[in-house]
Design brief:
Layout lengths: L6 H6 L1 H6 L4 E4 L12 E7 L5 H15 L4 E7 L6 H9 L2 E3 L4
Parallel strand pairs: 2-3
Antiparallel strand pairs: 1-2, 1-4
Length: 101
Protein backbone atom coordinates (compact mmCIF):
# COMPACT_ATOMS: atom_id res chain seq x y z
CA UNK A 1 0.00 0.00 0.00
CA UNK A 2 1.45 3.35 -1.06
CA UNK A 3 -0.88 5.65 0.87
CA UNK A 4 -3.39 5.66 3.70
CA UNK A 5 -6.63 6.09 1.75
CA UNK A 6 -9.96 4.35 2.02
CA UNK A 7 -11.57 2.90 -1.12
CA UNK A 8 -14.04 5.83 -1.05
CA UNK A 9 -11.22 8.37 -0.87
CA UNK A 10 -9.38 6.66 -3.72
CA UNK A 11 -12.56 6.75 -5.76
CA UNK A 12 -13.02 10.48 -5.12
CA UNK A 13 -9.45 11.10 -6.27
CA UNK A 14 -10.41 9.75 -9.71
CA UNK A 15 -11.72 13.28 -10.41
CA UNK A 16 -8.22 14.68 -10.03
CA UNK A 17 -6.52 11.80 -11.85
CA UNK A 18 -8.79 12.23 -14.86
CA UNK A 19 -8.35 16.01 -15.05
CA UNK A 20 -4.58 16.02 -14.34
CA UNK A 21 -3.34 12.50 -15.18
CA UNK A 22 0.39 13.23 -15.21
CA UNK A 23 0.56 16.21 -12.90
CA UNK A 24 -1.27 15.41 -9.65
CA UNK A 25 0.23 14.11 -6.43
CA UNK A 26 -0.68 13.06 -2.91
CA UNK A 27 1.60 14.48 -0.23
CA UNK A 28 1.57 15.06 3.52
CA UNK A 29 0.61 12.69 6.32
CA UNK A 30 -1.39 10.35 4.08
CA UNK A 31 1.84 9.23 2.42
CA UNK A 32 3.24 7.99 5.75
CA UNK A 33 1.86 4.63 6.86
CA UNK A 34 2.83 5.30 10.52
CA UNK A 35 0.40 8.21 10.92
CA UNK A 36 -3.34 8.10 11.57
CA UNK A 37 -6.12 10.32 10.23
CA UNK A 38 -5.42 13.71 8.77
CA UNK A 39 -6.75 15.65 5.86
CA UNK A 40 -5.81 14.78 2.30
CA UNK A 41 -3.19 16.97 0.68
CA UNK A 42 -3.16 17.15 -3.11
CA UNK A 43 -0.62 18.94 -5.29
CA UNK A 44 -1.55 19.72 -8.88
CA UNK A 45 0.66 21.20 -11.56
CA UNK A 46 -1.78 23.26 -13.58
CA UNK A 47 -2.03 22.16 -17.21
CA UNK A 48 -5.05 24.34 -18.00
CA UNK A 49 -5.54 27.95 -18.98
CA UNK A 50 -7.45 28.56 -15.72
CA UNK A 51 -5.79 30.39 -12.85
CA UNK A 52 -4.21 28.26 -10.11
CA UNK A 53 -6.77 29.65 -7.67
CA UNK A 54 -9.71 28.66 -9.89
CA UNK A 55 -8.30 25.15 -10.34
CA UNK A 56 -7.82 24.76 -6.57
CA UNK A 57 -11.32 25.94 -5.70
CA UNK A 58 -12.91 23.86 -8.46
CA UNK A 59 -11.10 20.66 -7.49
CA UNK A 60 -11.83 21.15 -3.77
CA UNK A 61 -15.53 21.69 -4.57
CA UNK A 62 -15.75 18.53 -6.68
CA UNK A 63 -13.92 16.43 -4.09
CA UNK A 64 -16.12 17.75 -1.30
CA UNK A 65 -19.20 16.73 -3.31
CA UNK A 66 -17.88 13.17 -3.32
CA UNK A 67 -16.77 13.09 0.34
CA UNK A 68 -17.53 15.80 2.88
CA UNK A 69 -14.11 16.08 4.46
CA UNK A 70 -11.11 18.40 4.54
CA UNK A 71 -9.19 18.48 1.26
CA UNK A 72 -6.10 20.66 0.84
CA UNK A 73 -5.46 21.36 -2.82
CA UNK A 74 -2.25 23.19 -3.71
CA UNK A 75 -1.88 24.25 -7.33
CA UNK A 76 1.39 25.24 -8.96
CA UNK A 77 2.22 26.09 -12.55
CA UNK A 78 3.93 23.42 -14.61
CA UNK A 79 7.51 22.80 -13.52
CA UNK A 80 9.10 24.86 -16.31
CA UNK A 81 6.98 27.85 -15.17
CA UNK A 82 7.63 27.53 -11.42
CA UNK A 83 9.65 30.15 -9.61
CA UNK A 84 12.60 29.09 -7.47
CA UNK A 85 10.68 28.89 -4.18
CA UNK A 86 7.95 26.79 -5.81
CA UNK A 87 10.58 24.44 -7.24
CA UNK A 88 12.27 24.07 -3.83
CA UNK A 89 8.91 23.26 -2.21
CA UNK A 90 7.93 20.85 -5.00
CA UNK A 91 11.19 18.90 -4.80
CA UNK A 92 11.25 18.89 -0.99
CA UNK A 93 7.93 17.04 -0.72
CA UNK A 94 7.55 13.35 -0.26
CA UNK A 95 4.82 12.85 -2.84
CA UNK A 96 3.10 10.02 -4.68
CA UNK A 97 1.73 10.52 -8.20
CA UNK A 98 -2.02 9.89 -8.11
CA UNK A 99 -1.76 7.52 -11.05
CA UNK A 100 0.18 5.15 -8.75
CA UNK A 101 -2.61 5.02 -6.17
Amino acid sequence: MLARLSPTEKSALQIVRQAFPDSSYLFGSRTDMKWRGGDIDILICNTTDKSNFDVSVGVERELFKKIEMKWDVVVFPLENNMNESQKRFFYSLSKIPLWQI
